[in-house]
């Protein structure tokens, strides 16, 4: 089936996904191109660049290899533009929730221990505040 062949083609060329996510192309248009031209390199040359890293990947790899000290200001700014702030915020929220649960457990353990230490049994000879 042509649809299954197209799915395999997309798996071989994951860069197509970024064009759809950035709303530059749609899956329908890509499928129509595939239906007309197949896997012809000339038809896909604008969307599939073999063995070339995108500029964002190059900058990110430079940051991880050399740290921020060896980069120009524009590369640092581009790197910060590509940081997924929503993902970071979600991760921080998850960590905060986990820490909250751990704190709740530790408070319960401490409250049990402290309540046992402060409890003083009433003497047997006293009856209702005599």
Layout of helices and strands:
Blueprint: H1 2-12, H2 15-21, H3 27-37, H4 41-44, H5 55-66, H6 73-81, H7 85-118
Helix pairs in contact: 5-6
Describe this structure in words.
The chain is mainly alpha-helical and 130 residues long. It folds into three domains: 1-52, no CATH class; 54-83, no CATH class; 84-116. Helices cover 68% and strands 0% of the residues. The chain has helices spanning 2-12, 15-21, 27-37, 41-44, 55-66, 73-81, 85-118. It is elongated, with a radius of gyration of 30 Å. The N and C termini lie far apart (93 Å). Mean pLDDT is 76; it is low at 51-60.
What's the β-strand tally? 0
Structural class: mainly alpha
Unreliable residue stretches: 51-60
Query: In percent terms, what proportion of residues is strand?
Result: under 5%
Please bin the fraction of helical residues. 55-70%
Topology order in helix (H) and strand (E) letters: HHHHHHH
Distance between the termini: 93 Å
Largest sheet: none
What is the 3D shape? elongated
As a whole number of angstroms, the C-alpha radius of gyration is 30 Å
- The tally of structural domains comes to 3
* Number of alpha- plus pi-helical segments: 7
Mean pLDDT: 76
